[in-house]
Amino acid sequence: MRYILLIADGCADRPVGALGGKTPLESLDLPGCAVLAGGLIGLARTVPIGVKPGSDTAILTIFGNDVKASYTGRAALEAAGANVELKPGETAFRVNLCTIEPASDSDADKSFIGSMMISHNGCGIEGSDALDLIGALTADAGFAGMMERIGFVIHPSPTFRQIGVLNGADETPFDLAEPHGILGLPIAEHLPKGNRADDLAKLMVESHRVLRAHPINISRGSRAANCIWPWAAGRAMSLPNFEQLHQHYGAVVTAVPLLKGIARMHGLFAPEVPGATGDINTNYEGKLNAMLENFREGADFAVLHVEAPDECSHAKDVEGKLESLRRFDRLIVQPMLNAMPAIDPEFRVLLLSDHLTLLENGAHDGAPVPFAIYDSRKPGEPERFCEENARQGCFVADGSKLIELLFERDFGKNILQ
Fold first, then answer.
1. Averaged pLDDT, 57-79
2. For the chain: N or C, fewer Cβ within 10 A?
3. Are residues 38 and 106 in the same domain?
């Protein structure tokens, strides 16, 4: 028996006016997802009440963790995904390359403070451009000197997602805005507060001074990745070994450092897939092949995660989100269903959104998400995988039990309501 967890990040949504009052899932015909929804369908609370919604808290829950007991902050997981080991007294940060405007040449502080957040991902900066920008930033004498004085280090990545590590911070909470949650808003109202706020804000201002003048950004024009934005502070944390906890082992296929970190901290394998990105143009075939190869090598469990619906929602891109779901169905779900019987005719699939990501404002939402569990031995009749149909099904109040439902452990009325 093989077990598959499919996460279409942020695919769940609320009704959208441009779609006639339907959600993206309700407005699309996705035949592969419909097959999966022919089994058990329902809603699950993947973000516990009182917990801030995000892929970190939601996916930790989906993997069977009690986030209220184990969670210390998103960046600790991202650091693990980037193979950055946190030492005692260190705090990790997610450091995004962002796009802000306007960027006046008259005064660095004034032009930064007076800007608005245009893109949380530097308008899609990646590859050598991202590495060159971070390299130039950390090589700049002024910026490097400031980092040294406050005990901050940036670990570079060929994406908009960088990892920062700060040494010597006390236990006082950090208060840092999520850049994807302030798109189109003035950044002055959302600069760091709380622990080490002045130090982090000065780094951000200095980064803008350096990055806005870089030739790569000059050539990108209005798409310039022209400042860093630290957020999601997290101290070192530990997670239980997944195989010991659940008696199943396999790979987590993702392009996102956060999930790679969750996988590695659980003792699961996270393969590198060439061309896999967190956007709509990811290497779908390569990711699916990596998952199938995991099974061919003898594993009995696999996770395949696609980030694109979430990114399109943050950008408030309705057509992009629709297309990301079409590609997920056509390039992941349908070929997976066709390929699995040759590997093992008996398999189960848990399909879900980790959280809602709303096209209306680009923000995450912690409401219960639709999920479906498919069993090849008793497939059922296909039906649309969407929020409305999920509301007609069962309800799982504790999303940390979903993984046990996938593994056929019967919790009965304690789980399904």
1. 92
2. C
3. no
Question: Is the CB of residue 264 less than 8 Å from the CB of residue 239?
Answer: no
Answer with the residue of higher pLDDT: 237 or 11.
Answer: 11
Q: Is residue 83 part of a domain?
A: no
Angle (CA) 230 152 90, round 5° = 90
Which pLDDT score is estimated for 298?
96
Q: Give me the DSSP letters along 167-196.
A: ES--SSPEE---GGGSTTSBGGGGS-EETT
Cβ burial, residue 72 (10 Å; 0-12/13-18/19+): middle
Where does residue 413 rank: exposed (0-12), middle (13-18), buried (19+ CB within 10 A)?
A: exposed
Looking from the CA of 107 toward its CB, the CA atoms found within 13 Å total 4
Task: Say yes or no: 29 and 117 in one domain.
Answer: no
Q: How far apart are CA 239 and CA 241, in angstroms?
A: 7
- For residues 320 and 312, the answer to whether their CB atoms sit within 8 Å is yes
Token pair for residue 181?
């949650």
Cα distance between residue 245 and residue 260, in whole Å: 19
Dihedral (CA of 259, 93, 45, 310) sign: negative
All residues at 6 or more sequence positions from 165 whose CB lies less than 8 Å from its CB, including other chains: 79, 84, 86, 90, 91, 92, 93, 152, 153, 155
pLDDT tens digits along 261-281: 999 999 999 999 999 998 999
What is the Cα–Cα distance from 305 to 253, expressed in whole angstroms? 6
Cβ contact 25:385 at 8 Å: yes
